Amino acid sequence: MENSVPDSPKPASSSRTVATPLYPRRRGIIIGASDGLGAALARHLAREGYTLALLARRQELLNLLCDEINRTANEKRAHAFSHDVTEYDKVPNLLRRIVADLGGLDLVVFVAGINYPPGGIDKYNFENDRRMIETNLIGAMAWLSPVAAMFQSAKAGQIVGIGSVAGDRGRVGNPGYNTSKAGLETYLEALRNRLTRHGVNVLTVKPGFVQTSMLQAAQGPTPFAITPEKAAADIWKAIEKRKQVIYTASIWRWIMLAIRHTPSAIFRRLSF
Amino acid sequence: MATMSLTLDNTFTQFENFGHSLRAPSYGFHPTRVEEIFDVFNLAKNLGLTVTARGAGRSYNDASLNGGGIVLDMSAMDKILEWESASGLVRCEPGVTLKQLWQCVEPDGWWPPVVSGTMQTTLGGCLAANIHGKNNFQKGTIGEHVLEFTAMLPTGELIICTPKTNTDLFYAMISGWGMLGVFTSITLQMKRIHSGLIAVDAWPVPNLSRHLSDLLDNAPRYDYIVGWLDTTTGGQNLGRGQIHAARNLKEGEDPDPQTTMQLAYQQLPDRLFGLMPKSLLHYFMSPFMNNLGVRGINTAKYITSLRKHTFRQSHAEFHFLLDYVPGWELSYGRGGLIQYQSFLPKETAEDAWRGMIQLSHQRGLPSYLGVTKRHRPDKFLLTHTVDGFSLAMDFKVTNNKRAQLSELLQDFDHMVLQAGGRFYFAKNSETSAEAARAFLGEETIVKFNKLKQRCDPNNLLESDLFRRVFGQSI
User: Fold this and answer.
1) What ipTM was estimated for this complex?
2) Of the partner residues B9, B14, B49, the one whose CB lies closest to the CB of residue A154
């Protein structure tokens, strides 16, 4: 079974395709790859020649995606691993196993995120808040902290975290989600400040509205919504240029500039 | 039993090959004692990781890389354990470099019997690759001068091998690419010299036919022979170049051997014209590292080689050409370089190489440097040598030509196999499992797999090279 991590490990498979100077295979992990942005990014990175470990909870979706990618590439570029990011204790072993299977590691993208709005501006739901923090923030820390240690020691690598425009201000609609993304972005900034001096790049991506299943949960209008493919293309460009923070679509940079500078006296009277 | 508890913390390291064309992040360990190798084997077994030993990392491909696994960097086990200047016997740890070795033995009137083009290589690496030198036709590979070695098997067993005891492992571990065990000590026989100088004859050869016949006919009269081949020129002049043949001075030919064998006499100059540090030279070379620039350089080199001449130079200068310009490999730029070396029987070499060089010109992918040597076969299991010649060609790797270059090298593989040739796993980075199987032969592979099963039942020892060329056969 490709997706299960054995308790008593066996030596890494000897059949994986090895990188050669003429077929240099960069190796990446996408955590949260089964649909939406993660899946679009997986397709894009595979097209760029990456060998990928794709992680998500939903095994069937993941297998379909891997099959599709491998069929298109006509070789095994995507490996599926079913994993729940809140099972923090499983991360170190799984990470080691993936690095051995991929033959190294150059890029880690943390996409996994959930959005459970409390259901109205007068509603509060601690259980939802906790689940979002556990997945969006602590899940990211469980993965990115061992990855950061490895990249720091290797003096190479790139970490990508998917934040959100929702992390730029605390708003009336969804305090838990805002907090989880703001926390993630601050964490990524701290990693960036630690790792840049070691030759490791940390990219924070702040998407606006992306046409995914998460968007269906959004209340109210969704301006400037883009396809996951467009967002993936933007992210790939930023990875190649080793950027630090990007908005996608890029117009959100200007919108959020305005929103971030809106005085609290006004902002707390707004209803979004 | 484990003497200490090891962890993977802070060991993740970006290892590269010599040509800087591959990067393989792995967990790096630097044992200083034999027991620590066993600790690493245990750790690997517990964590489900594979291990490969690495010396100086001077192979052009993935022989010392193990992406995502453990790399045993042996360079800290670098002690010369015993040196007997009367008999020329030396016992070394595997991380001892050829540089340490010749610098130890030369003042006493000895020289390593076989050396590579760089002195940075370690003895462990030299044995694993079973290196040859410019004297392969006279002295064979380095393995033929090994009297004894000890090695640790992945099971933790320490074994002693000589040509008489554990014979099968002796002939398989030398040339075995570290896939059966890890060398822990090596005993070698050095070669007597009577001077720190070597007498070199240099003469031009106008085409491939003369190039090869001169190598063949002149080799018996010399100790060393090597050719430079202008790979950028075709037509009538295809295969033109220059031959350097050298012989050791006999007793009495050097009036003052005590002086010439001193280390001070053997130092490679570190500045060009006494002015510019040679470590900066590669910056000035890189603008010429394109098809046009290299063609100019090769032509200029041929013109300057037209004068037949004889001279004496130090052993270090003659042997270690790759160290003459430190960092020369960096002049190939970001993509690095790859080397393609083919070993062909003397009967088929000329036609095959003519075809290969012509093909490289047709495709607009000329090699930038060609080097020829004369060889003889040996009886090591994964031997690369033949009764014939080798031609090593360097190619620059650029992003937009990767696919074309790959296709060219696959066509080369075909032509070499058709001509009954062999490959050398220290050099070629693109050899497929099928090509390896074709030149090694089914019987050799079965034999090697049996030994692998016996020495390493859990497949703990694996390198990227091993997975590339043996992956499918285990």
Assistant:
1) 0.89
2) B14
